[in-house]
Design goal:
By secondary structure, this protein is of the alpha/beta class. The protein is built from 23 helices and 22 strands. Strand 17 and strand 18 form a beta hairpin.
């Protein structure tokens, strides 16, 4: 009975194990204890070796590692690849400091580069520092009236605009590590070290990380912390070199980014000795609200320094910080900053100056004109100045983007669109409620401000000399900056003044003022925004203030059909909001009979408490193309004529602009000026039509071309860092 014997044997073994279980447990426990002790001493010995060698690896910089039975070599991690020292100097002091710092860095056996801000193009190169593992040091002086030195003017202008432009975002320079030393004179208390503070703040807003607290040198020996600006710099340099050595060993980390006024504060109580040698990256004390209020108050001070109501605050887009606070707090802050001064903007009427102050505070990057107008430099103007291509209006209609002035005579609007690129920081209203400025003054100041903004590009790297000279004379005016230009009571006089200065007029309206459209004098091209095709979707997307918004919308389209000059529907596609209403769009096209239909994918404008749009609502260019192709099939009088891939935009044109098989969507601007002058001299008796000033469209601008709407005379610039959609217009 083999099976019986096997069972007896198994039973005996199990009983024996049970009876001796205590000894088995003891052996296992002893083995585990020995293993833990061995691991403890091994780890301790390894750490001791690393400390003596100054790096996690051996002195030769490599370590053996067994993988699948083979010995391999792993290079030690490089924490700092080198140091780049940027300086902006007017009298040579910052340059001298940069040279001295470079010599000290070289003594640490680190690569170093000393770069004048005037010879550096941040638009092309700064983003590369996010992955270079370099430490970037900025030594910059504050010059007259708080302005940067001439050599640093373009660098500071670009950085300030990028920091406040939603298209770059809060992580554009994430990975860049930096330190700032500002040079100033506290005798000029209102402007003391303004430039250094701005650069520090702008870099932080773009996601860069401080490696140490911003420092400031003072030429005023009576106030200097160390007796002179040279001594201030030497003290900072010693601290910087200490931090740099620690970073090279991987012992320190950059600031976490929530520090106040550029000062990194430790959450732990440390003695003075330990804080000098063991100052670690730590948690920071200020809250997001404090950061916002501090930034706002500093911006307000900066604006006062520049003087006059035309100076604007440096918060380009409040969407960058609105995600941290409720919009109401920002509005209250804007209204309370100067509530004690009843003469803000030169008016004693509280209702006027409160509204003006709100506009003044919120519309950064703008040059404000009077009480209700503004002008701003479009990014496409800058792009074409540098030979990097024009906007979609250059492709579709032949405007010269570097000669285009973007302006508005009315900052107010009657809609609160979900995709508003101003995040609803502009005033809203259904009627004119502001003290009206004269059109002559508005145009004169718009041109002067535009020219002053162009002048800032003189000598900037990449700017073409011939285009710079041309840009000083505006040839086009896009009345689409923000708000509702047609609300301005003297819009006809303003448009006539533009034409008298040989400036073409591109006017955009939101289809809520049908009477004003009917009464509008001829403009070069009249746009109507058609953001939705049904009453329900229009209310959801545009959020109009008028109760009879839908009837006003339809009446505006009917009024557009009566115009003899060029008319355009402007469709903004928002995925999951308005892309499924093709038949309804076709019906609206039949109602207004526009000459052209622009279809553009929505541009994501960043986070905002006023909208819940995300990048998921931005259609791909292929999706926009497919939408336009399907729409064109429903409107037999129209075909796809042009494409501007960079702006995610296509143009449908009425077939009357296809002459002898060739598209004529471009504009003969000289001929238009002749026709509009004849119209005015005849008192309106002599009319003209869109076909009278049409011009042939070049092949590169046509839909289906290899260039996809990019002018071959220019060179397309591709950003080298993170893929990011900054294509807005």
């Amino acid at each position: 009975n083999v099976s019986m014997d096997t069972w007896n044997f198994s039973y005996t073994c199990l009983v024996s194990l049970w009876l001796h279980r205590f000894y088995i447990y003891s052996v296992v426990a002893f083995g585990i204890s020995v293993w833990i002790i061995i691991q403890f001493f091994t780890t301790k010995t390894k750490k001791k070796g690393e400390k003596s060698n100054g790096s996690p690896a051996s002195s030769e910089g490599i370590k053996d590692k067994l993988v699948n039975g083979y010995a391999t070599l792993q290079a030690k991690e490089v924490y700092v690849a080198g140091v780049k020292i940027f300086y902006g100097s007017q009298t040579g002091t910052a340059k001298k400091f940069a040279t001295g710092l470079a010599e000290a860095v070289i003594s640490l056996n680190l690569p170093v580069a000393v770069i004048s801000m005037g010879d550096y193009d941040p638009d092309d190169c700064l983003a590369e520092e996010t992955t270079s593992r370099n430490i970037c040091v900025f030594l910059v002086a504050t010059y007259t009236d708080g302005q940067p030195p001439e050599s640093a003017a373009w660098f500071c202008k670009w950085l300030g605009e990028a920091a406040n432009d939603f298209r770059f975002g809060k992580t554009y320079l994430k990975g860049l590590r930096y330190a700032v030393f500002g040079l100033g004179n506290s005798v000029y208390v209102d402007h003391y070290n303004t430039v250094g503070r701005n650069i520090d703040r702008w870099l932080w807003m773009l996601g860069a990380s401080r490696i140490m607290t911003r420092a400031e040198g003072d030429c005023n020996v009576a106030q200097s912390k160390h007796g002179s600006i040279e001594s201030d710099f030497e003290a900072w340099k010693a601290k910087f070199l200490s931090w740099l050595q620690a970073l090279c060993r991987g012992e320190k980390k950059p600031c976490s980014g929530k520090c106040k006024k550029g000062k990194c504060k430790s959450s732990r109580k440390q003695s003075k000795e330990s804080s000098d040698q063991e100052h670690r990256a730590s948690e920071h004390e200020n809250t997001e609200a404090e950061e916002l209020f501090e930034t706002s108050s500093e911006e307000e001070a900066d604006a006062e320094e520049a003087g006059g109501t035309n100076a604007v605050v440096d918060v380009e887009d409040l969407g960058n910080i609105m995600s941290h606070m409720k919009k109401a707090k920002v509005l209250l802050l804007g209204l309370s900053v100067r509530a004690s001064d009843p003469h803000v903007g030169g008016h004693s009427d509280p209702a006027h100056w409160a509204g003006s102050l709100l506009i003044y505070f919120l519309f950064s990057g703008y040059k404000l004109i009077g009480s209700h107008s503004g002008v701003k430099l479009c990014r496409w103007t800058k792009s074409m100045l540098r030979g990097r291509g024009g906007c979609y209006k250059h492709t579709f209609y032949g405007i010269e983007s570097h000669r285009c002035m973007e302006a508005t005579p009315s900052l107010a609007c009657a809609n609160k669109c979900v995709f508003c690129w101003r995040h609803h920081t502009n005033p809203v209203g259904t009627e004119w409620r502001w003290k009206m400025d004269q059109p002559e003054m508005i145009l004169q100041e718009a041109i002067e401000n535009h020219q002053n903004m162009i002048k800032q590009f003189k000598g900037v790297s990449g700017v073409k000399a011939d285009r710079f000279e041309e840009a000083m004379t505006a040839k086009h005016c896009a009345l689409s900056l923000v708000g509702e230009p047609i609300m301005y009571p003297e819009i006809n006089r303003f448009v006539k003044l533009l034409h008298q200065h040989s400036i073409s007029s591109f006017l955009v309206t939101n289809a809520q003022f049908p009477d004003e459209i009917r009464n509008l004098e001829p403009v070069t091209q009249l746009y109507v925004s058609v953001d939705a095709s049904t009453k329900e979707s229009l209310k959801r997307i545009d959020r109009p203030l008028f109760k009879d918004f839908w009837q006003r919308f339809l009446d505006s389209l009917k009024a557009l059909s009566e115009k003899q000059q060029r008319t355009v529907y402007r469709l903004t596609l928002v995925k999951a909001w308005n892309v499924d209403e093709l038949k309804a769009y076709a019906d609206l096209i039949a109602l207004g009979k526009p000459d052209f239909v622009e279809v553009k994918g929505v541009t994501y404008c960043g986070e905002s408490s006023a909208s819940n749009l995300t990048m998921a609502n931005v259609p791909w260019h292929e999706e926009v193309v497919r939408f336009v192709q399907e729409l064109a099939d429903l409107v037999p009088d129209y075909e796809i004529a042009c494409e501007h891939e960079h702006s995610n935009c296509l143009l449908m044109a009425h077939k009357k602009f296809k002459v002898d098989g060739e598209w004529c969507t471009w504009i003969n601007y000289g001929r238009f000026q002749e026709l509009v002058r004849e119209h005015e001299r005849s008192g309106g008796a002599k009319t003209f039509t869109a076909a009278d000033y049409a011009a042939k469209t070049p092949r590169w601008a046509l839909f289906g071309s290899r260039e996809r709407g990019f002018d071959p005379l220019d060179v397309r610039y591709q950003r080298k860092n993170k893929a990011r959609d900054i294509s807005g217009c």
